[in-house]
C-alpha cells in the first residue's frame, strides 16, 4: 500500500505518517524511494490510534509498541505488563479529571466575581492644574476658558478660545481640538477583534520596548514633569505604568477618536484614579499646549502611523513644544531596504512619506530636532506581525527598535552625560 492510501485509510496526513516512520512507530518496506506500507504497519497504526485515544503519549506508545514487537503479548506476564500500564493510565486520568473539576470550579468562581465587579464610570474632569499648559497652537498664547463647568479641582465642560479664532471644546473632561479630521482608524486597540489581528509575537516584542521606555523614565525625577503620548488609537504604552511612575506626574494622551479617548479615560480612572491626566482628541499634532512644555514624548508607533498619512515629518510639528532637556522615547517598526512591504505601503496609501516604515525615516525625523544623543536597541523581529498590518508581505521581517533621543537646542554645547 502506498503512503497516500495508508494516510487516507487512517484519516491522517502524509506528514504524520512520515513523522511516525521517523520516530520508529511505523516500519514500512521500501521500493526504491517509495515506502510500502505492509500489513504490520496497518496493525501497528491501528494499535497506535487506539492508544492515542486512551491519552498515551507518542513516547509511551513507542515503549509499549516495542514491548509488543518483542513479546507479541502471548504470555501471561506480557498481558499483565499491558494491564498494569492501562491501570496506571486510568489512575493518572482520574487524577487529571479531579484537577480539571477543581479548575472548572475556580473558573466558575472567577466568572461570578468578575460579573459582579462594577466598571467605574469615567466621571472626572480635566484637572485645573492643566490650565497653565493650555496655549493656542497658532499664536502660542494662553487659551481662555468660557462657559466652564467646574467641580472641585476639575473642569468637566467648557470652551477654550483664542483671539485669533482658535477654539477647543472640553466635553466630559476630554479636550476636543479645532480642525479634527475624521479618524483614519475604524476601530481602536481595545477592540477584541483588533487585538486578535496583532500577532502574539509582535505584542511580546512591543512589551519589551515598552518596558525599555518605562525603565528609562523611572531613572528620572518625574515630579511635575509633562509626559505626552499621541496616536493612542493604535497603541498606548504608559497606562500600565502610571501607578509605578507616581501620581505627581502630568500626563497627556492624544487620539483621533472621541470614543477611544472615552474608553482610555475610563480605564485609567479605574486603574490609577489619582493620576493627573489630560485627554485630547487631535489629528494633526498641533496640540493646544504651551511652547517648550513637553518633558517626555512617548512614541508608540505614532511616528510610524504619521508617516503613512503625511509627507511632513512629525518632529517638525513637535519641535516648538520641546525644550533643551526634553526626551523622546519610542517604539519604531521598520522593514529592510528594497523590501516588498515598503513598496506595498506606497501602493496602498495615497500620499505617504517617501521613507515611511524605513529606518531612514526615524533618522531623518530626529535630525530635524538637532538631537545630539540617540540610543536605539533592536528588540527583535517577526515575519508575522499580524493581519492588522495589511501592508506586510508574508515571510518578510518586521523589525522593532526601542529608541530614545535627548533633545538639545541648536547652539548649545554638547555635554556627555553618564
Short description, anyone?
With 418 residues, the protein is of the alpha/beta class. The chain has 13 helices and 14 strands.
Protein described:
The protein is an alpha/beta fold. It folds into two domains: 3-72, Multidrug-efflux Transporter Regulator, Chain: A, Domain 2 (Orthogonal Bundle); 126-406, Rossmann fold. It is 39% helix and 21% strand. The strands form two sheets. Strands 3, 4, 5, 6, 7, 8, 9, 10, 11, 12, 13 and 14 form a twelve-stranded mixed beta sheet that branches. A two-stranded antiparallel sheet has the order 1-2. Strand 8, helix 8 (242-245) and strand 9 (250-255) form a beta-alpha-beta unit. The radius of gyration is 31 Å and the shape is elongated. Mean pLDDT is 89; it is low at 409-418.
Secondary-structure map:
Layout: H1 3-9, H2 14-23, E1 29-31, E2 34-36, H3 39-53, H4 58-71, H5 76-116, E3 126-127, E4 144-151, E5 154-161, E6 167-171, E7 174-176, H6 192-197, H7 200-218, E8 226-229, H8 242-245, E9 250-255, H9 258-271, E10 276-281, E11 294-300, H10 302-309, H11 314-318, E12 322-334, H12 340-348, H13 359-367, E13 373-382, E14 398-406
Parallel strand pairs: 7-10, 8-9, 8-11, 9-10, 11-12
Antiparallel strand pairs: 1-2, 3-5, 4-5, 5-6, 6-7, 12-14, 13-14
